[in-house]
Each structure stands twice: as C-alpha cells, then as structure tokens.
Protein 1
Amino acid sequence: VTDATGGEMTKEGEDYIAAVNGNDLVLTIDSTIQGIAEKYLKQAVEENECSKGGNVIIMNPQNGDILAMASYPSYDLNSPFTPTAFYADGWDNLSNSEKSSRIYQMWRVRSVSETYEPGSVFKLITASVALEENITGTDISNDFYCSGVEEVYDRKIQCWYYQAPYFSTHKGQSLRQALMNSCNPSFIQLGKRIGAETLYKYYHAFGFFDKTNSGLPGEQSGIFHALNEVRPVELATMSFGQRFTITPLQMCTAVAAIANDGYLVRPKIVKSMTNTDTGEITEFTTTPIRQVLSSQTANQVKSMMQSVVTDGTGKRAQVEGYAIGGKSGTSEPTAGNENAGYVTSFCAITPIENTQVVILVTLYDPTGSSHQGGQTAAPTVSNILREALPNLGIEPNLQ
C-alpha cells in the first residue's frame, strides 16, 4: 500500500474523526444600519446607471468596528449558486468554468477584494502629510495657484474646473480652499513640495502597503509604483489619488485614523466568538496599530473636511442638524482602458469632534448625467447618514 507520492504506508485502515460543533460568531455589523446602506446603495447604482455596481463601508473609527459593508449587485444568500440578473447575462452560453468564475465574482466582498483608484478622496492623505510635516498651514492665503492647467514634465494636467465654455480657474488658494475646490493643480504643487520619499513613509504608516487584516477573505493591499520609479508625473498624479490602487477598506481605515485623532486601528467585523460546547466567550478587542498623525493635524484636517461639506464640492452630503465633514473623489480610467469607466466616491465623518462614524460610498462606472463624486456619491452618503445616525443614537450636533 502506497500513498499518492509512491511512499510506503505503514498503517492501513481508516481513522474516524468525530464532528466538532462550530463556534457562534457575533459580528460588529448592525443589521439596521446594514439594511439602510443596502437600500440607498441600490438606489444610487440604479439612479446613476452604474454599470459595474458599487459598495458602502460604515465604520466606528474609535474601535474599528465595521457597522455595515454592502455591495450592489448582491445575491440571495439562500441560493448562492443562482446568478442574479447582473451576473446572469449570457449565462446559458457560458462554459462550466466561466459559470464558476462568474459565481465566484458574485460572492466577492468587493470592499476588500477589489482595488480602485481613490481619486480626490486621497487628497486628505496628501493634506495630512503636508500639515504634519509643517510644509504648509490650513489657511495661508495664495499658498497655491491654479491657472487651470499644471504643466508636469512632458504633459499638462488640467483642473476639473477648467472646462468649456468658460475655462474658469481657481487662482490663488489656501490649502483649505484647494481641498474645498478639489483643485488638482494645487495638490500637484503640494505633492512636489512634500516629495515622494516622505509621501511613501506616510503611505506605509496609514497602512496602504499592507492588508488591513480585517479577517475578511480575499483581501488585497495597495498597488503602488516602486519608490525608485516615481518620476514627476507619477508624483503629480499620486498627490490627487490616481495611477495607483487601494481597496475601499484601506481608504476608509485611513480616513478613520484621521477621524480618531491620528490613531490607526485595525478594522474588525467579528466582535466575539462563543464555544458552543463550553460556553467560553472570546472577545475581539480593539487593536491599535500606530499613531500616524498628531491630534492637532487630525483636527486641522477634520476642520477642512467640514468646510468641504459646508462650502465646497461636498455640499450634497449635508445632513440637517449634523456637522458633517467629507471629501469627494472622481478617478478617470487610464488610457487604453476606457471601458473601465469612471469611479466616483465620497468619504464622510460625523461628528467633527469625537467622531463616531466614517462612511465611504464608491460607485463604479456611473453612466448617467454625472460622473463627479460630489454629484453621485455625496447624496448617497447624505441619505444613509440621515437615516442611520438617529438609529445609532447619535444626536444632532451641528453648532
């Protein structure tokens, strides 16, 4: 008698291993908040004609608890091998391997298993680095200048505001104004001041080079240029969140660090585990990772985020009675991959002080009337928070 490799087996017969009862898990997910997130995400995908769907993450930044994590299109958990309409297109003409691939794609937790270009939401990271390194302040008049186009090496990078027929420009701006206006030229100038080496040091500190270790299957980490390959164009595009990819959970976790007075904590989706035989309960406590920013810098960034919502590109994320801070994001497809479409997003925090909620809405390939994050994802954030905050027991806090 030999084994599969041809080696001699000295023991014959079978060993019987008795079944063991599984453990009970208590998730951090709040079922009410999850339902609210799913409802408004579905509405956003349909209204904005997002051909590739979308996702939502809602976190408590203080302890890393994931309160909701929704994807659309989703599927029936009671019939996991039945493709939903989104995945069933041409089903009968697919091979068995193609059908299996489609089913696995349907099951994926997109917030952790797919990377994307975060776009201008990432300007929060660039701004945080600049303030922490004392490279600029929040309200220095005319610290940056937007002429509509920034020339970088062999190409010209245009500001979204510089469009026909008016070709308007932001002109002189402070950092707060540049963030409120989501001005690419200003952040290109800021990225150049900071430098790639310093940016990469903070990218590591924020966790973009590592998986978040949330416990969810299939988790990916960020994909960046090697530091020695970062040239002027790469430095410019990184400064406003393009030409690299991260997962939505990485982006949400990094903003949660800003919201949590500069402390990065590990996101988690399991609160406790109970041994069903012994009754022993294992609690999954908060795991602090590191302090990324000083509390002073974090508060400065949160103040600018509030200005984005009150007076900038994030006005549609406002919720009556609540102080909301946020940042919109819009990333365009790379040359040669135009079919991928735009990715629009909005990340928000509330309250501004003692922040208890961070939310990130990401929409893939909106083909409706707009492909701007402030027009598509921001209203979705507003809808979710308007209903979710009272359910979380968070009272109106707008001063």
Protein 2
Amino acid sequence: MASSTATKPVLVVTGTSGAGKGTLVQELLRRVPEVALAVSATTRERRPGEEDGVHYWFLSQEEFDRRFAANEFLEHIAFPWGQRSGTLWSELDRIRGEGRVPLLELEPNGALTVQRHVPGAVTIFVTAPSLEELERRLRERATESAGEIEERLQLAREQLEQSRECTYVIVNDDIGRAAKELVSIVRRELQESTATMRA
C-alpha cells in the first residue's frame, strides 16, 4: 500500500456522540475544497435514496469477509447487532488520485487505529464543553431512548479518555468558533505537509 504512506496527511475527525462532529465536518468540506470525505463501506441494507459509492459502499457480509481477509480495510467496526462498517484503503488512494486530501469521520477507536497505521495521520477530537452539556444535546436531539442516552453518556466518559491520544482536541462550545478552529488546524497541517514535500 505505498500510496497510503504519501506525505499528504490523512485527516480524521472523531469525538463523542452529540458533540457536533458531523456538523463540523460539513463546514470543513465547504470551506476547504482540497479535502474530500472518504466513503465508508457497510453491510447494512441500502436505504431509499442512497447511492453506492456516494453515501456508502454497500457490501454483502461475504464481500466484507473477503475484503477483510485480503487486508483491504484500514479500520473497521463490528456492531453488536451484526452490522459491520469500515474504511477501505482504496478510498485513500481514490481521493489522493484526485489530488485531494482524505478526511475520515470515525469513532475514537477507529481514529486511533488510523493513527497507528498511517504515518502522519492527524486526529482531531471534538467534544462538548461538559458532560452536562453533552447530555442536554443528546436529550434535545431526542433520537435515542433514555436508556440509550445513558449508554451514550457512559461511552462518552470512556471516549474522553481517548482524546488524550489525539493530535488535537476541539471543544465545541460554539459551532461557528469550533468550525473556525477546525478549518485553521486543517489549513495549517496542509501547509506544513506541502512545505515538507518541497523540502
């Protein structure tokens, strides 16, 4: 996988559920056009309106097994209900082939896996200002039951420990300010990698 160790960084945005990382990723893509979001592979059923290769790469369990056995995944996760998802190395190659920089939006475990396997990977952890604020956001979102919210909060406490291993931590206390900080970090990292390539 020679191209996966190219000088241009792999950017990974991660964080706790409810911290707002998805919103920040969309702002980053809008403001920094040289960055492109990697399309995840998944074994879940395609929903109406979803396109293969756009929203996800939709794989059967057998195809996922085959690709996993062939070491085609940079990182992957298996969910308790049987669904699996992951990032294919070929996505990094595709994005770099377009002359752009790969961006991954992952759970903390996946982000740290990328950090271990991709030299120069930049991991950016997004968190809410406090667990109380995180709980308020999760309850306001109202997409989970009370029990699920408690599970997510417990997971968030564990994930906050993982933030120490990331390259950067952004506290999303204000979406405009946090987006500006994320864009600033990414532009600085891209400038540094370009300078390294020229040296």
